[in-house]
Specification:
Elements (H helix, E strand, L loop, with lengths): L6 H31 L5 H6 L2 H20 L6 H16 L1 H5 L4 H64 L3 H22 L15
Helix pairs in contact: 1-6, 1-7, 3-4, 3-6, 4-6, 4-7
Amino acid sequence: GKVFRNPTVVVMAVVYFLLKPTRYAILFWGPVIASDRLASDSFALAASLPAAFEAAGLVAPIAIGFVSDTLFRARRFPACVLSLLLLAVVLLLFGPLTRSGSTGGMLIAFFLIGFFLYGPDSMVSATAAVDFGTKKGAGSAAGFINGCGSFGQILGVALPGYLMVWFPGDDTTIMLFYGFSASALVASVLLIPLWNRVPPTPRVSS
């Protein structure tokens, strides 16, 4: 019960909820989005381009962990805030980056989104969850944060499909990314008050 009343854990849970729609929308709808934006008619090409998003997921957690440990001295939230702000910018610029319909622009857009998303995703759901859940509540904190993320995951899978049916057209995709950008911005703002927060130091009994 104490873990679920921890303000830091609650904020991380809300942040994770806000991140999940972007991740799962691209995972499930990436080929459709790429097909709508590409100049080429090849759906095989469109289906392969979102792999850049997943490729970024291989390096982003390592990069944000390194930055957090070295540059910010094990403070987890500064790296997350900066990454989320950059994510908001890239999502906002998705339209211009892919306007020409070029393969290169699409690859860059998907890779950058993945890079700036997967870092905070892994930090909030794993490293910081364990840090701030403390030894006694680490499992509960991680479970609570990931559970909240699952609700966001449902939105990410369902929302693009509904929007594309109700409001067909290229503008719908761009508006969707504007929404994702706003979510990333809100998530970063929520974490700013935690900028200097460090995990509680266990008391050593005498």
